[in-house]
Amino acid sequence: MYSSAVKEKKLTFKSTSVDETIRFGKRLAALLSPGDVIALVGELGAGKTTLTKGIVEGLGVLDRRVVKSPTFSLVHKYEGCIPIYHFDAYRLEDGEEMLDIGSDEMIYGNGVAIVEWADKVSGYLPKECLKITLTAVSENERSIEICGYGSRYNKIINDLL
Ligand SMILES: Nc1ncnc2c1ncn2[C@@H]1O[C@H](COP(=O)(O)OP(=O)(O)OP(=O)(O)O)[C@@H](O)[C@H]1O
Ligand SMILES: [Mg+2]
Known about the structure:
Layout: E1 8-15, H1 18-29, E2 37-41, H2 48-58, E3 75-79, E4 83-88, H3 96-100, H4 103-107, E5 112-116, E6 129-136, E7 142-149, H5 151-160
Parallel strand pairs: 2-5, 2-6, 4-5
Antiparallel strand pairs: 1-7, 3-4, 6-7
The chain binds adenosine-5'-triphosphate (ATP) and magnesium ion.
């Protein structure tokens, strides 16, 4: 669960277009390494999948159109310069189902894990992660709040500054 005793550091960005959110995702991607976990939080249409597209493109997947909310399959894997595991916990009651599909191997594995609706399964995610909360401010404006839990993710926040 990310809201724990580990040291946290926060930063908030504003995006005024889909392109800006994608660009932000690419910038973040450049700072990611195998084993990193990104917990995405925000209402329907907040921009979680859009941000994921930017991260995935930034990790070397040429066509970001392959990125779609994995609502029915629960997880999609993309092959970038490192593997990317894209989860969507929207329709889950809790995280047990995530464990059933072997999420631990993906989350504690050789790639980057991105989890949409992470607040629904927070108890099943590592204590240390990068939590990104997207909020719709107006039709085209989104607030992107990034919280790094643990020293690895505090460093990412510093590098984003
Ligand atoms: N600045 C912005 N950044 C991201 N998306 C934006 C922005 N402005 C408008 N949008 C629109 O908001 C929507 C974001 O959709 P997206 O699928 O990324 O959201 P989501 O959080 O993944 O939703 P869901 O919970 O349904 O999976 C898109 O229709 C996009 O065009
Ligand atoms: Mg989505």
